[in-house]
Amino acid sequence: MDALVNDAHLGAFVQATIPGKENGFDIEGLAVYNDRIFLGLRGPVLRGWAVMLEIELEANGTDLLKLKAGQYKKYFINLNGLGIRDLCLQGEDLLILAGPTMDLDGPVRVYRLEKLALLQANQLHKPTQILEIPYGNGNDRAEGMTIFTDTEPPSILIVYDSPATERLSGISDVIADVFKL
User: Fold this and answer.
1) Cα-Cα end-to-end distance for the chain
2) β partners of residue 20
3) How many other CB atoms sit within 10 Å of the CB of residue 64?
4) Cα(28)–Cα(145) distance, rounded to whole angstroms?
5) Which residues pair with 104 in a beta bridge?
6) Buried b / exposed e across 4-16, counting CB within 10 Å, b at 16+?
7) Strands 124-125 and 65-78, how do they pair?
8) 127: which residues sit within 8 A by CB, 6+ positions away?
9) Which of 122, 55, 109, 112 is nearest to 89 (CA)?
10) CA–CA dist 21, 88 (Å, integer)
């Protein structure tokens, strides 16, 4: 957060007291590709573009890690006004679960950003939409995903915040969705 406080695009959101679910600074996705860590931001969405950060960490002489030389990279991603809810690797590609930045019902989609290793920082990227995820009215808001690569074709599991009554089974079970990729 210290590294971002003066960032030209994100600094004002880091300094402000805007709640994360009201287009404030809100990290919701994480993916690790080799030695690179990608953080997906649910908010802020800037002029309709979502933001993803890349960081590298190093040991600081204790059991903790710190940001390597204060460096980070920013990627601007055209998700049609949606924020990043989760990130998931599929080989060299990054799958992005996208949904509204605010606590609202609205479109939820999965996008594919190809060739993660070749992404250029500080540029606008246009991933390909690969799935439209159903959402409810005040419920069933997709929040997380994971990939099943041992199935043919590969599939993705989507879990929801505020599950609809129909998703509840017993006192502790919740039904998720699986979609073919």
Assistant:
1) 35
2) none
3) 8
4) 12
5) none
6) beeeeebeebbee
7) parallel
8) 77, 78, 79, 94, 96, 111, 112, 113, 114
9) 112
10) 22
pLDDT tens track of the chain, all 181 residues? 778 888 889 888 888 878 878 888 899 999 999 888 999 999 999 999 999 999 888 777 777 777 777 689 999 999 999 999 999 999 999 999 999 988 888 899 999 999 988 999 999 999 999 999 999 898 999 999 999 988 889 999 999 988 899 999 988 899 999 999 9
Q: Which amino acid is at 119?
A: L
Asked whether the beta carbons of 135 and 159 are under 8 A apart, the reply is: no
Ordered by start, the domain boundaries in the chain are 11-180
111 neighbors 128 (Cβ within 8 angstroms): yes
Helix ranges restricted to H, the chain:
11-15
- 55: tokens are 């960081």
Q: Fill in the amino acid letter for 27.
A: I
Q: How far is CA 46 from CA 49, 56, 61, 76, 102, in A?
A: 5, 24, 37, 9, 14
